[in-house]
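Hi R.,

As promised on Friday, here is the backbone we talked about, encoded as structure tokens. Could you run it through your design pipeline when you get a chance and send me back a sequence?
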């Protein structure tokens, strides 16, 4: 039975905050370092999931592994799994933004090797978003160390495949299956709670909205020859470069057509690929693809925006005989919006203050261009937002990377653990005998 006494809740909060000591702080930091030291690029998340499962089992949580595809499991841990009371989930993605294998001599913050310098943790995933899992763990440890018994259910979930990527052209396999596939699978197979916190790297600010996004391919075809007879061919690279400039020139109009008051719009050409890099003697190139990232407010449907771009590409083809461009979409994901006046948003603001931190706030407008799995949970009727320890660099700017890669402030990590614990107490409530 839950105890609704404000005095008992205040006592529980004081006990939990007072439970933070050097031992628990070291556990939290060590947990984050362990996670960074386990490589987990998209498609290779299993080792991190196994580690998380083992650690959360040790604090008495019920743990299950949910297979998304072979060797790719979501990790789901419950405290009070059968409680009919209020429920809260702390969710995070286990895959890292990059692999750490992209190039030789990467800086320390882009390698799966934890390094602590002057109160900051460097390493791949430190900011996005392995530190969040250690803060979730820390919140559970603080509540248990204070002897508090909760009246509701707490879930920690680690999902695969959140990173913004998708198979296209000759890029195939699990390492390219991201875009929220793990969260989508999880929710469709029972992963749920009243409210969901996602510890994305927001710098302990609140991201309560995100733009929808779409990945598109705009293609051009040519006629190949060998270099000795290149004059007889048609160059797809020339067509691709023309399309590249045309799309960039159209971005202001695109933004004007689809942007909203709160969430804007962006059209970005992120990649171009054409010809045969290993055999440039085949020239002109027979194909060239332009890869486009579109961001737009969630009140615009993906179909509406795809059709808008499709019409623009068709117009370019009509106005330029012989261009014959192609267009297809290979990933799309809805955005979300949780109003700041919502009770859950306000509960996070309160928890942040109770943890002893200076006032938090919404992220800046451009941060809404960053996606999060909150989208999936919101689509299924839950309330979700992002609020996490990473996303702040030594110079005070809100971003994941400094000149040496990913970095997370350890003080923020410990502060988030306290804040998450305060949120758990406020949302779940305590059993009558849980605090004297």
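Update: got your reply. Pasting your designed sequence below so it's all in one thread:
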């Amino acid at each position: 039975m839950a105890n609704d006494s404000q005095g008992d809740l205040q006592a529980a909060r004081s006990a939990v905050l007072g439970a933070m000591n050097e031992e628990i702080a070291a556990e939290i930091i060590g947990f984050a370092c362990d996670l960074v030291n386990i490589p987990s690029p998209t498609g290779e998340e299993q080792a991190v999931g196994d580690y998380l499962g083992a650690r959360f089992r040790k604090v008495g949580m019920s743990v299950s592994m949910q297979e998304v595809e072979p060797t790719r499991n979501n990790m789901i841990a419950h405290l009070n799994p059968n409680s009919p009371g209020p429920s809260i989930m702390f969710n995070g993605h286990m895959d890292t933004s990059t692999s750490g294998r992209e190039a030789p001599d990467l800086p320390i913050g882009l390698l799966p090797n934890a390094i602590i310098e002057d109160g900051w943790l460097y390493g791949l995933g430190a900011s996005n978003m392995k530190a969040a899992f250690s803060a979730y763990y820390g919140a559970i440890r603080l509540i248990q160390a204070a002897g508090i018994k909760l009246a509701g259910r707490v879930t920690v979930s680690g999902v695969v495949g959140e990173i913004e990527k998708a198979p296209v052209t000759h890029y195939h396999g699990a390492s390219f299956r991201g875009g929220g596939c793990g969260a989508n699978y999880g929710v469709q197979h029972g992963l749920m709670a009243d409210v969901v916190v996602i510890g994305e790297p927001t710098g302990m600010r609140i991201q309560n909205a995100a733009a929808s996004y779409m990945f598109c391919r705009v293609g051009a075809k040519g006629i190949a020859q060998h270099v000795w007879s290149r004059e007889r061919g048609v160059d797809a690279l020339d067509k691709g470069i023309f399309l590249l400039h045309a799309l960039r020139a159209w971005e202001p109009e695109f933004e004007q057509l689809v942007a909203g008051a709160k969430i804007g719009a962006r059209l970005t050409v992120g990649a171009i690929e054409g010809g045969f890099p290993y055999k440039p003697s085949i020239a002109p190139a027979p194909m060239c693809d332009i890869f486009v990232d579109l961001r737009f407010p969630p009140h615009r449907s993906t179909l509406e925006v795809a059709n808008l771009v499709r019409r623009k590409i068709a117009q370019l083809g009509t106005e330029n005989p012989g261009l014959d461009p192609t267009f297809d979409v290979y990933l799309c994901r809805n955005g979300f919006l949780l109003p700041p006046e919502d009770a859950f948003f306000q509960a996070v603001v309160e928890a942040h203050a109770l943890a002893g931190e200076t006032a938090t706030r919404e992220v800046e407008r451009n941060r809404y261009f960053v996606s999060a799995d909150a989208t999936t949970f919101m689509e299924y009727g839950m309330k979700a937002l992002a609020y996490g320890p990473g996303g702040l660099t030594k110079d005070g700017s809100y971003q994941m990377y400094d000149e040496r890669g990913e970095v997370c402030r350890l003080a923020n990590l410990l502060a988030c653990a306290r804040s998450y614990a305060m949120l758990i107490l406020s949302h779940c409530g305590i059993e009558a005998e849980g605090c004297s």
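One thing I noticed while checking it: Residues 2-210+335-431 form a domain with the Aminopeptidase fold (CATH 3.40.630.10).

Thanks again,
M.
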